[in-house]
Amino acid sequence: MKHFCLCIVAALLLATSSVFAAGESSALSVDDSITLPGEIKLQKEDITEADCQNCHGVKGFAVPLTDDTAAATRGLYVDERQLHQGVHGNYSCLDCHVDIEALPHKDELLKVDCKTCHILQGEGTSPERSSWLSRDSMDIVIQTKHYLQSVHAEKTDNKVNANCADCHTAHYVFKSDNTKATTYRLNAPATCGNCHAEELDEYRHSIHGATLNRPWLEIDSASCTDCHSAHEISAKENLQSHRVITEQCAGCHSKEVRSYKATTHGQLAWLGDEEVAQCKDCHSPHDTHKVTETASKVSKENILETCQQCHEDAAKEFTGFRAHADLGDFERNPEMYWLGMIMMVIIVLTLIFFYTHSMLWFWREMKSRPYESVKIDGKRFRVRAKRIKHDSGVHFRRFSWQWRANHWALALSVMTLTLTGMVVMFPDTAWAMFIIQLFGGPATFGIIHRTAAVVFLIAVFGHGIFVLIKLLKDKDFDWFGPDSLLPRKKDWADMKAQFSWFFAKGEPPRFDRWAYWEKFDYWAVYWGAFVIGLSGLILWFSPFFSQYFHGWVFNLATLAHGLEAFLAVMTLFVVHFFNNHFRPSKFPLDTVMFTGSWDLEEFKEERPEEYERLKASGELEKRLVEPPSEKVKTVSYVLGFTLLGIGLILLTLVIIGFIQNGLV
Q1: Higher model confidence: residue 346 or residue 153?
Q2: What are phi and psi of 395, to 5 degrees?
Q3: Residue 464 phi/psi, 5° resolution?
Q4: How far apart are CA 309 and CA 278, in angstroms?
Q5: What is the per-residue pLDDT for 380?
Q6: Average pLDDT, stretch 347-362?
Q7: What is the 8-class DSSP label of residue 459?
Q8: How far apart are CA 525 and CA 514, in angstroms?
Q9: 3-state SS, residue 379
């Protein structure tokens, strides 16, 4: 009976064959109320693909989009052969059209929801789909999730901007590396152009589009999905859009993308700063041309105008800025090459020397500790003595409140600069992107960074000016005496004696007021403040300096700023912390910079030359003070450990950034 009815339906279709005389573009006007003779319907469990093909297998089968039969139509023809060649060829019609319960089916079917198969979610998933999902590549699930977060999946006027079928078609879905696929890279422009006609027209005249269909050219041009990705499409003003496109560009232009991300432009743009130049600002997003072509925005004829889009007052010399400066390319960037080499030598030699110095010091102090007898569970063991705690009841005033206030200003400003600066230096690390979001974006970070920079420079150079004025008024001050921070011969002798002691070849040096390593700490701050401060000011006030400086000066400023900051972090939070807090005789914390005083016995041990000199001159008594109260000690320990903890966290983040991205 079933086959008899189907034959009748087939006869009716053939009787109306004149409707399809125009071929595939013609349409069949279907009366939706038609049913099988005798009101007989096929139930879901009886429906086969052949049943569906009785209608949808007829070329030209279509329905009008409106009640006006002369209006446009929607084609419903499905090429069975093409369907089975695609990735969905092993599935039946009802696997996707799940709301069909009988034939003929209802007037309007539900839109096929691809994600019900591509993402297993919610209850009610059939065992067949679950089995399919268990075998499916996780890449499909990931791409589908990306799509759901994209601008294509968003709704405009209660309609999805672009559904899966708009790009992949409804029935002829092939893998993207198949030339039949509408998403094949050579077919993608036409597919995307269905919605983005203006962009497609620009693209066809660009360097990317001009060679797309000319295989005799060696250039492998970029298609739409090569730049925008297949599924991570976001609004052009969206931060994710910039990141995705930048990463996609690296597929062909890895060297240029790497160098771009090392510039201020790339670093801040990656973090979401909308005011700095992105790829699209210098290279038209779709109408891209060779640099040698006059149509290019970065050609010799147009580059100044392009720069002036952001740097309105920029002079012609500013166009020498290297937007893609490669430190290793000596021919194109000799200035950056030499500065980079000099800075790297300074960094490597400084870290090798002082890290070695710290390790030897630690080893010698541990070896020099006397043994003591300790009883454990009735048995005696010889162990190294713990740190000697001095408690003479009298303290020696080492730092005035002005010194300590200045130290606080330096410590807080440097840690703030480290946090905000290293986020920019390592922008694509997970911790940097988390912190930038936590603080509300690059604009807020910029304000915090510059405020901390002002505090830092005032603390450094303000202190220097104050001390210099004070010393100039003191006619009797010995500029190379024991109270001076200027290097002198004794420092060299002390350093040699210290290394001899490290290797058990002599006694430790007898330090006066300032040890050689303290003088290094002191003058390293001025060196860093000069390099970081000068380069930072050039970058901060680039609109002004761009009128006078050659463009590559800003490249040098960026390079010097970052490398010197890295050196400062790796010495301050390692060497300085060890010298003053982490060496065995001081561990875990020296509170002298917080309380301002040392126990007299500790002072005698640390600075024997100064102790004897002050005692002989009678000055020692004038600088003896009462020990700090328990409350002051407690506050000092809390503040000290807090600063140390923050410093070590910052050091860890910088090391992670260095391991992940390097320096340049």
Answers
A1: 346
A2: -120, 155
A3: -60, -45
A4: 12
A5: 58
A6: 97
A7: H
A8: 16
A9: strand
Can you list the domains of the chain with their CATH numbers?
Answer: 1-110 (no CATH), 398-661 (1.20.950.20)
Which residues touch 638 (CB under 8 Å, ≥6 apart)?
A: none
Give the model's pLDDT for residue 18. 36
Give the tokens for residue 41: 């319907």
Q: How many beta carbons lie within 10 A of that of residue 227, not counting itself?
A: 20
Structure tokens at 448: 């915090």
Residue 174 token pair: 């092939």
At 553-569, the pLDDT tens digits run 999 999 999 999 999 99
C-alpha 81: how far from its chain's center?
48
Judge residue 397's burial from the number of C-beta atoms within 10 Å of its C-beta, 0-12 exposed, 13-18 middle, 19 or more buried.
middle
N residues, the chain: 664
Q: Are 61 and 77 in contact (CB under 8 A)?
A: yes
* 282 phi, psi to nearest 5 deg: -100, -30
pLDDT at 218 over 60: no
Residue entry with tokens 């006027």 = 157
Kindly report, residue by residue over 167-197, the tens digit of the pLDDT.
999 899 998 888 899 988 888 888 998 999 9
Tokens of 213: 């269909």
DSSP 8-class letter at 67: S
Note the pLDDT tens digit of each residue in 542-557: 999 999 999 999 999 9
- What are the angstrom distances between the C-alpha of 664 and each of 261, 570, 616? 9, 16, 55
Which residue in this structure is represented by tokens 């560009």?
249
Under 8 Å CB-to-CB from 239, ≥6 apart: which residues? Answer: 272
The CA radius of gyration of the chain, in Å to the nearest whole number, is 38
Please report, as a single letter, which amino acid is at residue 420. T
Token reading at 541: 């006030």
Which of 557, 534, 573 has its CA nearest to residue 654? 573
- CB-based contacts of 130: which residues, under 8 Å, 6+ apart? 120
Among 5-14, 131-140, 174-183, 291-300, the least confident range: 5-14
Helices and strands, counts by H and E, the chain? 30, 11
Q: Which amino acid is at 179?
A: T
Asked if 640 and 592 touch (Cβ cutoff 8 Å), the reply is no
Distance CA 425, CA 348 (A): 19
Inter-helix orientation angle 516-540/552-571, to 10°: 150
Please tell me the distance from the alpha carbon of residue 24 to that of residue 39, in angstroms, as a whole number.
30
Q: Mean of the per-residue pLDDT values for the chain?
A: 85
Residues 6 or more apart whose CB falls under 8 angstroms from that of 289 comprise 206, 207, 295, 296, 299
Sheet of strand 395-397, all strands in order from the earlier edge strand to the far edge: 597-599, 395-397, 624-625
